[in-house]
Amino acid sequence: GDVAHLSSAAGVRHVERNDGPGPLTFLQMWLAPLESGGEPSYTVVPGIADSTPYALPAAGAMLHVRRLGEGERTALPDAVRLYVHV
């Protein structure tokens, strides 16, 4: 899938909608920046590969995506804070 990164900075207006006829599934994460301010920005990384980490240095975070089949396991990153969405 794709990763869309929106930094709202001082504020933005945006809408999430499906442009195609098929169903759309997405997960939205809200992360606070380490320092306030800056300019709004929007980036899309199309087709990010499974197990490819995506760095968000302004938030001091790293996103990891894993797509596991039935019965599969994966190791979790060693981190002070960790959020897992199943």
Features:
0% helix, two-stranded antiparallel ribbon, 4 strands, 86 residues, 19% strand, mainly beta
Question: Can you tell me about this structure?
Answer:
The chain is mainly beta and 86 residues long. It has no helices and 4 strands. The chain has strands at 3-7, 41-45, 54-56, 61-63. The strands form 2 sheets. Strands 1-2 form a two-stranded antiparallel sheet. The protein has a two-stranded antiparallel sheet with strand order 3-4. The model has no long low-confidence stretch (mean pLDDT 88).
How would a textbook summarize the main sheet?
Answer: 2 strands, antiparallel
Regions with little confidence, pLDDT below 50 for 5+ residues: none
Our Rg estimate from Cα atoms comes to 15 Å
Distance between the termini: 16 Å
